[in-house]
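Page 37, continued from 36.
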């Protein structure tokens, strides 16, 4: 079966690899254009584009699927399109090109967390279980009928990045199984049922911690925005980046945003109990252990996060 693979970030690469290993003929890869990376803003291919180049697969770069992109997709003659975190909408004119349509691997248990940041939103909401599904792509936002489902427990210290990494590999197996069933004529998609929730793309503001919130909510938020866009707070008018914090229910009484040093532990007050900073990154510097950062402060007890 001739497959068009659409994807952009690193979490989509395991699916591309799995399709190749399973013997599918990947006739082309659709991915977003090269993007500026790092402080020097060097134009860099997406992880999927880089992997496609290694595999000798033709690459179609497109920030949006316009008439020219649709013509290029049609020219490669796919029987099915597999899409994993491509990062753009697929218009109806493109949906009808493959005879089996477009099959999306989505990292949530639909209809929960429809949208661009399902894993991040699940962690931030405190979900105990998440997962991945394969479904038939429609014009609606992640509304199509589901072919297959897998579940994954969310650990108490899981970051969104760690959880997404696990799901990218188990999801690749699910996607391959789904396409094999489609090729064999044995796939059956069923309509989504249950409560709908939305997972809009994260912004920088989603990473700002409000120290008046309870410690548990702050911990979930910090884990959900790690690694991107990252947790942060304001200190003396500058942004201080933070890695996920540890909950310290044994430390009550600190005012929200106030800091205290207990041994080598740097503690911050919240709306409930304390949390412990792990690593911090002051503006213009590298990420460092919180204790090392604290040693450079004249008087930690006078510091208050904004």
């Amino acid at each position: 079966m001739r497959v068009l693979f659409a994807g952009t970030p690193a979490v989509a690469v395991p699916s591309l690899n799995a399709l190749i290993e399973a013997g599918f003929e990947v006739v082309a890869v659709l991915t977003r254009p090269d993007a500026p990376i790092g402080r020097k803003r060097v134009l860099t291919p997406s992880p999927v584009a880089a992997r496609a180049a290694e595999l000798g697969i033709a690459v179609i770069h497109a920030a949006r699927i316009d008439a020219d992109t649709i013509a290029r997709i049609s020219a490669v003659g796919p029987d099915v399109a597999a899409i994993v975190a491509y990062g753009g909408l697929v218009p109806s004119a493109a949906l009808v090109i493959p005879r089996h349509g477009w099959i999306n691997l989505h990292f949530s248990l639909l209809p929960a967390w429809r949208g661009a940041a399902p894993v991040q939103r699940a962690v931030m909401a405190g979900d105990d279980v998440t997962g991945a599904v394969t479904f038939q792509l429609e014009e609606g936002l992640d509304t199509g009928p589901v072919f297959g489902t897998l579940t994954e427990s969310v650990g108490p210290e899981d970051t969104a990045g760690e959880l997404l990494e696990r799901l990218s590999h188990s999801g690749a197996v699910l996607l391959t199984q789904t396409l094999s069933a489609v090729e064999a004529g044995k796939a059956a998609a069923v309509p989504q049922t249950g409560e709908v929730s939305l997972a809009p793309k994260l912004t920088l503001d989603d990473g700002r911690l409000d120290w008046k919130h309870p410690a548990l909510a702050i911990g979930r938020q910090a884990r959900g925005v790690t690694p991107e866009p990252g947790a942060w707070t304001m200190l003396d008018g500058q942004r201080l980046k933070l890695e996920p914090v540890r909950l310290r229910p044994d430390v009550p009484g600190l005012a929200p945003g106030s800091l205290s040093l207990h041994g080598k532990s740097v503690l911050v007050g919240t709306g409930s109990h304390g949390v412990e900073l792990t690593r911090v990154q002051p503006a213009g510097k590298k990420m460092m252990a919180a204790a090392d950062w604290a040693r450079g402060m004249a008087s930690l007890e006078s510091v208050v996060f904004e």
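The CA atoms of residues 77 and 176 lie 20 Å apart. Flag for discussion at group meeting. Helices lie at 13-21, 47-55, 67-76, 92-95, 118-125, 160-183, 215-224, 290-295.
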